[in-house]
Write a structure and sequence with these properties.
Length: about 150
């Protein structure tokens, strides 16, 4: 049976809509299957699976404390946070120290690590020169723009 005839035979609007939606969803899911993509990018290589498990446990502790408002749970959560932050800091230091110790060119590796941690990249400082015959009107215009921007801040 053709789709158009199937819709024309039915008089009830709700059944027509359900038939349309079922047909649409069947075609949609056949065309675009649900595929889960695994994220393999790790922006923090020092973050181990143990630390991740501890972070999820910390989150669960926080949620249980928030539901119960128990002062004992609050103290337990705070002490767990303190220990976890120390562990994360130590893992971070160990990872970067290990990278520096394994390298042959330690200053270069150190500066590369500083650049990656602070997200500083090499900038292109190629300035082009501009030759202007009559520089006075341009200077006046720039000063005018500068004064307007200072006055209306």
């Amino acid at each position: 049976m053709k789709i158009g005839k199937m819709f024309l035979l039915e008089k009830d609007v709700n059944i027509l809509f359900n038939n349309f939606l079922n047909t649409y969803l069947r075609i949609f899911y056949a065309t675009f299957p649900n595929v889960k993509a695994k994220n393999t990018y790790n922006p923090k290589p020092w973050l181990t699976t143990g630390i991740r498990i501890s972070c999820t446990k910390k989150r669960k502790l926080y949620l249980t404390y928030r539901k119960s408002k128990n002062p004992f749970l609050k103290e337990h959560y705070k002490s767990y946070c303190l220990i976890l932050s120390k562990v994360i800091l130590l893992a971070n230091k160990l990872y970067y120290n290990n990278l520096i110790n394994k390298s042959n060119n330690k200053p270069k590796t150190t500066w590369n690590l500083v650049r990656t941690i602070t997200n500083n990249r090499k900038t292109d400082n190629n300035f082009t020169t501009m030759n202007v015959e009559n520089k006075l009107p341009i200077i006046h215009k720039l000063l005018q723009i500068l004064l307007i921007s200072i006055l209306y801040q």
